[in-house]
Amino acid sequence: MKIACLQIDIAFGNPDLNYERAADCLKKAHEAGCELAVLPELWTTGYDLTRLDEIADTGAARTKAFLSDIAKKYKMHIVGGSIANDTNEGVKNTMVIVNHHGEIVKEYSKLHLFRLMNEEKYLTAGNTDGLFELDGEKMAGFICYDIRFPEWFRKHVLNGARVLFVPAEWPLARVDHWRTLLIARAIENQAYVVACNRTGSDPNNQFAGHSIIVGPWGEVIAEAGKEEELLIGDINFNAIDEIRSRIPVFEDRLDSFY
Ligand SMILES: NC(=O)CCC(=O)C(=O)O
């Protein structure tokens, strides 16, 4: 499966412009022959959290219609990063996944809110898992800070997920943590990790870029630099079986001791 991470800059608090930019990049991913595209975290608004009452997407309705139209037009699955989603439980940081028929297959809202970027003051945590299926393969979505919680990843992998998606707005200041944690999540779970970070800056942070696709052996299949980039990599589901039979971690787990 040919996958594209849309490592883009995000216009602070300007959804109209961000939808336009995302549409351009999704078109480029389609033209490059990609079967699945991934967007970064909070790609419609950035971290303009004090203005969420004006700029959040009510019920993610605009985002769902936008992604669904594009997915259908290009026959491409879209892991829709995440957006500020105004729900009756508060504003959530929600990922929408759309298959290549334009059907919404999953909504996952970020479980672990990141205090260093004030998320807990403005956002409501999700309360569902991130498991979904595309082309008969089990996959899962996580959002940014979630990568610091290996138990959350393991839970999804034990439930069958073999491709783990991570949209993010990860600052440059901790780019070493970003790379190390993502590679570790791939190695320990013997699964693909596809992580799409934003680039550019906002009033509080400079972002790292360095979107990355990591294979189940921990090998870096593709990695972006710091600038805007359409990062493309191929994933091969057979490699997961091969590595799991070489080192049978999932057979050797001793659940009763953990
Ligand atoms: N947007 C985020 O969740 C950022 C997480 C982060 O920077 C970290 O160090 O963790």
Automatic annotation (TrEMBL):
<dbReference type="GO" id="GO:0016787">
    <property type="term" value="F:hydrolase activity"/>
</dbReference>
<dbReference type="InterPro" id="IPR003010">
    <property type="entry name" value="C-N_Hydrolase"/>
</dbReference>
<dbReference type="InterPro" id="IPR001110">
    <property type="entry name" value="UPF0012_CS"/>
</dbReference>
<dbReference type="InterPro" id="IPR036526">
    <property type="entry name" value="C-N_Hydrolase_sf"/>
</dbReference>
<dbReference type="Pfam" id="PF00795">
    <property type="entry name" value="CN_hydrolase"/>
</dbReference>
<keyword id="KW-0378">Hydrolase</keyword>
<protein>
    <submittedName>
        <fullName>Carbon-nitrogen hydrolase</fullName>
    </submittedName>
</protein>
<feature type="domain" description="CN hydrolase">
    <location>
        <begin position="1"/>
        <end position="237"/>
    </location>
</feature>
<comment type="similarity">
    <text>Belongs to the carbon-nitrogen hydrolase superfamily. NIT1/NIT2 family.</text>
</comment>
